[in-house]
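thought: fold this chain, then report.
action: predict
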Amino acid sequence: MKFSDSLKYFGILIIATFLTFFFHEMSHWIAYELLGYEAGFTLNGASVKDSAIQLPKLHRMITSAAGPLFTIIQAIIVYLILKKNKNIFLYPFLFLPFIMRLGAAWANRFQPNDEGRISLDLGLNLYFISSIVVLLLFFLVAKISKKNKISILFNSITFIISILLLFALVFIDSKYKIRFV
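observation:
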């Protein structure tokens, strides 16, 4: 890959990270609002504005599932596009959902997040649904990598950069809590 293409790819990775997180959290927010709650969201979180409100179990599960469902749909749509049209510059929009949910699965050990909360609400192991989601997204990444001949080296570099971008986004969100709504 030429240097200018590498810079373009890096820029797209940054955009893909921001948009993947933004629409994931916005999906949580939409679910809250559709269920009748006044809610808001940041780059890495969505919640009802009144923290005293205790959501019923079903509402908790719906609002928890909304973000991952959008992220999975994003990955499937981009996978289908990449299956027909080999475009390396769209690849970050498939890769980032995998990295995002992998990071979320790992973060369950500190505090249950979307898939972890749903697993616990269903009486399952904390990591059960996270594992299924991560494996599905990994399968899509691996299948497109094989079909489009994306090398292990390229994927490794994309992985490292994506993890750094994920940590940067989480850090920025925790430090500045920029609310979109």
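thought: worth noting. The radius of gyration is 17 Å.
final: tokens above.
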